[in-house]
Design a protein that fits this description.
mainly alpha; 177 residues; Serine Threonine Protein Phosphatase 5, Tetratricopeptide repeat
Amino acid sequence: MRNSLQIVLLSVLLAFPAHSTRPQQDQQKQDQQKQDQQKQDQQKKAEDPTQESSSKKNLPDPDAEPDEKPVAKKGEKPDDKSAKPSDKYDPYPAQKDLEVGMFYLHKGNVDAAIDRFKDAIEQRPNFAKPRLLLAEVYEKKGDKAEALKYYKEYLQVFPTAPDSKSVRKKIEKLSGQ
């Protein structure tokens, strides 16, 4: 019986290694798993360019129209020969003006939003979205003449807009009042 007790005791001790080394081994396993996960994440980011920060590069503008032409600088006519042919059209500043204008609009600073939307139009004359937003803002402010002007401009710039029917109804409504 004494032998069987020793065997049971010995098997229990062998089944459970020393208590002091187990937490250290667990910690090492966890550290290794974290490192492996970080390596996998880095590899995924390197393989997938959509995981990059959007501030690192200019992404194509979803609101862009296919027939866009470079914007003339202040004081120049669009077909002025003094424009350098090496100047590249950059829609990014206009898009940023639109985004900042939206931010101001959501914060309730309507006048600042209007200024940014106008800046976006100045940067990119055939940009439809800021015109629609300006029209809506002016309509809410009660300035029907400006709202009407920008609704009409919106349809001139983007005649095939998906919301053109509702914009035409708004124009009719504002014209009739």
